[in-house]
Amino acid sequence: MNDTDALADLRHHWGGAYKIGWRAGRWRAARRDDGSMVSADTAAGLLEQIRADYAARPVPREDNGPWWGAS
User: Fold this and answer.
1) Dihedral sign, CA of 18, 5, 69, 65?
2) How far apart, in whole angstroms, are the C-alpha atoms of residue 32 and residue 40?
3) Is residue 50 within 8 Å of residue 29, measured between CB atoms?
4) Every domain of the chain and the residues it spans
5) pTM for this one?
6) In 1, 10, 11, 22, which residue has its Cα 20 to 30 A from 32's Cα atom?
7) pLDDT in tens, 12-35
């Protein structure tokens, strides 16, 4: 998987809890609740860091209701 696809995949699965990005060869994810960060040299490494962080302290996610937008 290339970096663009890896970024899209991480954002798809974890974007509700983390702001995820890649810059200058470093992968980073900032928690959406308090902004604390995890980082890694690879997308796979970042995924491990996110999973460990989330297991230790789950990030509250906003409930947007049903997919069709009704409340």
Assistant:
1) negative
2) 18
3) yes
4) 3-56
5) 0.82
6) 1
7) 999 999 999 998 889 999 999 999
**Integer Cα distance of 6 and 64 in angstroms:** 25
**HSE value, Cβ hemisphere, 13 Å, CA-based, for 50:** 24
Structure tokens belonging to residue 25:
């060869």
Name the DSSP class of 62.
Answer: -
Percent of the chain exceeding pLDDT 90 equals 73
Element (H, E) at 27: strand 26-31
Report CA-CA distances (Å) from 43 to 2, 48, 63, 69.
Answer: 10, 9, 27, 32
